[in-house]
Amino acid sequence: MLEGAPQRALKLVALSCAVLVPVGVTPQAMRADEYPVRPIALVVPSPPGGGTDLQARILAPKLSEILGQSVVIENRPGASGNIGAQAVAKAAPDGYTLLALISSHVINPSVLKSVPYDIDRDFTMISRTVTAPGVLVGNPFLPAKNLRELIVYLKDNPGKVGYGSAGVGSLSHLIVELFEQDAGVKLLHVPYRGTQPALNEVMSAQVDLMAPDLTIALGQMQSGYLRAFGVTSDKRSEAAPSVPTLSEAGLPGFNAVQWFGLAAPPVTPQAIIRKLFDATVKALNDPEIAARCANLAMTPDPSASPEDFTKFVHDEGVRWAKVAKDAHIEAQ
């Protein structure tokens, strides 16, 4: 059958479109090159107002400016960050749904009986964003005035000194477990439902010690309600420059911080990941972002590459799994 004019016209259009597609460039790659063309959802796995939420809200407007599309915060709290993580793991791998990754996401598999994701398999890592040191604090009635005196006191009173945490398997729990292992001391763990209730109990001398984020404890430290024995990072914090690190105060090599990052669903195109990584690094290098983070005792700390962040996340999971195992923490 001879082709009619409409059929010939359609064929010419199809051929013209084919000519416009460069050899070796897939439709997926072309979409990645145009990305983003609509708003991006940044899933924050915690309620508004906490450290995870605050750092995301500092970063999001600058990312929006750099990428030319809105980055919209979506709070999905619950289950130690697992609800938000699961939502992103199952989202379309198109770069329009991202996760504010937190330390808890790598700790959860070691302290919870069931976790709805595999941290190495179900996400494509983009970059670390900021870090926030913890700080070992005690009520001012403790006889120890510095870390060395504290360690001596704890060794003289094994299992008698209590410490609070935000809950079994929380970072504030595991940091003290790591401190116990490194210092060769034994304390009594008293878990609470959240950081603030535990910190209140330290200030009222119901328990003696805790290792919260510096962000949360700083005000009470400055007011004299808490005594700081050292920050948990490997460098002093600009927010509390007079407080030594635990490493310099008597535990060489101690380093354990709360960290935040960005992750995408699995098999997100690498061209999109690279664009998000570049935008994240550019945003974190902005002096305004650094100043706003400093007000929260946080430090911009982008990864060297997405691959570097992938390795970092994996290594953190291995590290905390060992701490949990050595501390005989039972999965909840």
Keywords:
D-Maltodextrin-Binding Protein, domain 2; 332 residues; 6-stranded mixed sheet
What low-confidence regions span 5 or more consecutive residues with pLDDT below 50?
5-27
How many strands in all? 11
CATH topology of the largest domain: D-Maltodextrin-Binding Protein, domain 2
CATH superfamily grouping of the largest domain: Bordetella uptake gene, domain 1
Q: How can the largest sheet be summarized?
A: 6 strands, mixed
**N- to C-terminal separation?**
72 Å
Order of strands across the widest beta sheet?
Answer: 2-1-3-10-4-11
CATH class of the largest domain: Alpha Beta
Question: Would you kindly provide a written description of the structure presented here, covering whatever features stand out?
Answer:
This protein is an alpha/beta fold and 332 residues long. It folds into 2 domains: 39-132 and 257-326, Bordetella uptake gene, domain 1 (D-Maltodextrin-Binding Protein, domain 2, 3-Layer(aba) Sandwich), CATH 3.40.190; 135-249, 3-Layer(aba) Sandwich (D-Maltodextrin-Binding Protein, domain 2). The protein has helices at 5-20, 27-34, 51-67, 82-89, 103-111, 147-156, 171-183, 195-203, 214-222, 246-249, 270-284, 287-294, 306-326; strands at residues 40-44, 71-75, 97-102, 124-133, 135-138, 162-165, 188-191, 209-210, 227-231, 257-264, 299-300. It has a 6-stranded mixed beta sheet, sandwiched between helices. A 3-stranded antiparallel beta sheet has the order 8-5-9. The chain has a two-stranded parallel sheet with strand order 6-7. The protein is globular, with a radius of gyration of 24 Å. The N and C termini lie far apart (72 Å). Residues 5-27 have low confidence and may be disordered.
